[in-house]
Write a structure and sequence with these properties.
Elements lengths: L4 H25 L1 H19 L6 E10 L2 E11 L2 E9 L3 E3 L6 E5 L4 E5 L1 H16 L6 E8 L3 E2 L7 E3 L2 H7 L8 H14 L5 H15 L9
Parallel strand pairs: 3-7, 4-8, 7-9
Antiparallel strand pairs: 1-2, 2-3, 4-5, 5-6
């Protein structure tokens, strides 16, 4: 009688490796992981190329708003203005215009619609404007696409690829704030932001779902 025990043990040993590997690959391809990887890459580039003494930085800033919360990927505070950076880790071809509500990500056989990131970032700017009590002209929206995507339509200067956001931020050279004002605004945001915890992120996701529910009650911002 043939003993299948060694064969079963070998198959089981292989499965014990394959299942976690497949899970890890699936996790890395998920929107959650792509978002976090994108934010980490932007942090790394900013750390290397933007002087921390000139550009004070905050990452993953969750602020309270009249209709719940808003979550900002990156904020850079400088005497030249406040730069609010939204990260998009996407591949494929990107089609979009400054005034279009929806942009398109296209691959060979399929395409996806996503919200115009400039519109998405506008809410972040308004939340910071309210929190800091500053003029909107000193707040600058910046979008950074990473992940190998290609723009197939002409994009405004503040929609960048890779490390292009650094060039855009550095293009502002006219001081509009004093150093003391930057320090005060930094302290205000540190005090006013929600703690960057899983509970905060979970609450924000629930707020997003509630806002997308057409039956939910609305509050005027």
């Amino acid at each position: 009688e043939m003993d299948f025990t060694p064969l079963i043990a070998q198959v089981w040993g292989t499965l014990c490796w394959l299942i976690p590997a497949a899970f890890l690959i699936g996790l890395l391809k998920s929107p959650w992981a792509k978002g976090h990887i994108g934010e980490l890459l932007v942090r790394f580039v900013a750390h290397r190329q933007l002087d921390e003494r000139t550009y004070r930085r905050l990452h993953n800033v969750t602020l309270s708003t009249p209709d719940g919360t808003t979550q900002i990927d990156h904020v850079f505070l400088s005497i030249y203005g406040i730069f609010v950076l939204e990260t998009k880790n996407m591949g494929g071809w990107i089609f979009g215009g400054e005034r279009q509500a929806q942009w398109t990500q296209r691959f060979k056989r399929r395409s996806f619609k996503f919200q115009n990131p400039l519109r998405q970032n506008y809410k972040h700017l308004k939340a910071l404007e309210a929190a800091l009590g500053i003029s909107p002209e000193h707040l600058h929206s910046v979008i950074s696409f990473i992940g190998g995507s290609t723009f197939k339509t002409e994009m405004p200067a503040n929609v960048t690829q890779g490390g292009g956001f650094v060039r855009y931020i550095r293009s502002f050279q006219q001081p509009v704030f004093a150093e003391a004002q930057i320090e005060a605004m930094l302290q205000t945001l540190q005090r006013g932001r929600r703690a960057p915890t899983l509970a905060t992120n979970r609450e924000h996701v629930q707020n997003l779902k509630r806002r997308s529910d057409p039956t939910a009650e609305r509050q005027c911002p």
